[in-house]
Specification:
The chain is of the alpha/beta class. It is built from 4 helices and 12 strands.
Length: 185
């Protein structure tokens, strides 16, 4: 258990798909491991695109993680962790906010990566609320697949209307504001 005088923090890494969020999360977690800190890594059980028990970036970097169905499970599984990594934060409910705050109050460094907007260009909860309570926010940009400019939007390529449709390059592209086409409602 972290000491009572330790100062916890919340760090958020956000952006569109293909912007390097998971890659940056892995980089920060590996540095914590090199520093011999106790690290626990979690991902939503719904995200099994690349692996069930690893967080995996689109460029195939990976770290072992534990899949969880609800944010509250993270509190139960992190008694002695000094650093907690959470990937795909947008797939959790708003309990992730209270969980992150509770962990930071315990003295834990909490690092969360996730989409800041959904395919409609609408803020993707709970990421905006996490950004508001975080000590540090990193907004990553991808490259627009249409024109090569910096991209902050995720273009869905299918007609699916569910907010959560797990996929990768077969279903999504990174787009800049000019090239992004909002779905017809």
């Amino acid at each position: 258990m972290p000491t009572s005088h330790a100062t916890g923090t919340i760090e958020v890494i956000c952006g569109s798909m293909f912007s390097g969020k998971t890659e940056e999360l892995i980089r920060r977690l590996r540095r914590a491991q090199i520093a011999k800190q106790r690290v626990a890594i979690f991902k939503p059980a719904i995200d099994d695109r690349y692996a069930h028990d690893h967080i995996v970036s689109h460029n195939e970097q990976k770290l072992r993680s534990e899949p969880v169905r609800q944010a509250n499970e993270i509190l139960e599984k992190t008694r002695d962790a000094q650093v907690i990594g959470i990937d795909e934060g947008q797939f959790f409910d708003n309990d992730l906010i209270a969980v992150s705050i509770a962990l930071a109050k315990r003295g834990v460094r909490v690092i969360i990566a996730g989409l800041d907007m959904d395919y409609r260009g609408v803020p993707f909860e709970p990421m905006p609320q996490l950004m508001a309570v975080a000590e540090q926010v990193t907004k990553a940009q991808a490259i627009c697949i249409q024109c090569g400019e910096p991209a902050t939007f995720t273009q869905r390529l299918t007609l699916a209307r569910d907010r959560v449709v797990v996929g990768a390059t077969e279903m999504y592209e990174a787009r800049c504001r000019k090239c992004y086409v909002p779905p017809e409602e």
